[in-house]
Design a protein that fits this description.
Layout (H helix, E strand, L loop, with lengths): L2 E2 L10 H5 L5 E3 L7 E3 L9 H5 L5 E2 L32 H5 L3 E7 L5 H8 L12 E3 L8 E5 L4 H13 L5 E5 L1 H5 L21 E3 L6 H11 L7 E2 L2 E2 L7
Parallel strand pairs: 5-6, 5-7, 7-8, 8-9
Antiparallel strand pairs: 1-4, 2-3, 10-11
């Protein structure tokens, strides 16, 4: 994900805004910053980095880490104190150390699905963490959604959510599910899960890599800490 340094921005420059296809960069933003960077819309294409003449946007080794609040994917001038980590109640007490996941493809290009498939290989071996995919929403704790939520898939998605037992949680996986991606608001789709289902964990990326997906799943069950706040990776947090 590109790193942003507003102190290097030139007044009147709009090059990054003009080349950003998913409109992740906009004029305005938080106090002290001339532009706003929304990593929930970023597809990490690096077009902004190539267009920036001053180095205000630069490449980095930062992953698309998961967050609990959508606002934490938008760059802010100053970091606030860490928010409460729990979603309400003791999630470990509810799930123990296991989690059953029902995946719904709500119009994805299959990029996210290719990364999900890799979770079962010997390198990542998701089952060793007690996390399993289930074919039925009736046995699922988490509804994992990919794609921008096309109009054709909105009904089946809501039916899958309704069939899940309580307590149930939702993860928006990939930039499309978080914000609609490059095709958000088009004739056949919406803006991801916004206004469709309550989201507990947001994981942007086009697509997010398997290690980032594992981090987001462990974040949900409180076995990992959130590593991004207000659009920035928290310094001193090692990668998984």
């Amino acid at each position: 994900m590109p790193r942003f340094d507003p102190g290097k921005c030139d007044d009147g420059c709009r090059r990054c805004v003009e080349v950003c296809l998913p409109e992740a960069i906009r004029i305005g933003g938080s106090p002290g910053a001339r532009v706003e960077v929304d990593y929930g819309r970023c597809i990490a294409c690096q077009a902004c980095v190539e267009a920036c003449p001053t180095g205000a946007l630069a490449t980095s080794q930062d992953w698309a880490f998961g967050v609990r609040n959508r606002e934490d994917l938008v760059w802010a001038q100053a970091l606030t104190q860490p928010a409460a980590e729990r979603l309400g109640g003791d999630i470990r007490r509810v799930f123990g150390r296991s989690l059953h996941v029902r995946h719904v493809d709500a119009g994805s290009c299959n990029g996210c699905e290719s990364e999900l498939q890799a979770l079962g290989n010997p390198i990542y071996n998701l089952h060793r963490l007690g996390i399993f995919f289930t074919p039925s929403p009736r046995f699922a704790d988490l509804l994992l959604v990919t794609g921008p939520v096309t109009y054709a898939m909105r009904g089946p998605l809501l039916e899958a959510y309704a069939a899940m037992p309580e307590p149930k949680f939702v993860m928006a996986l990939g930039t499309c599910a978080v914000s609609g991606g490059t095709n958000g608001g088009g004739y056949s789709g919406g803006h991801g899960l916004e206004g469709v289902l309550p989201v507990d964990v947001y994981l942007p990326g086009c697509p997010p890599n398997p290690a980032a997906i594992i981090h987001a799943l462990l974040l949900l069950v409180e076995r990992q800490r959130q590593r991004v706040r207000q659009g920035r990776v928290i310094e001193g947090e090692p990668h998984a």
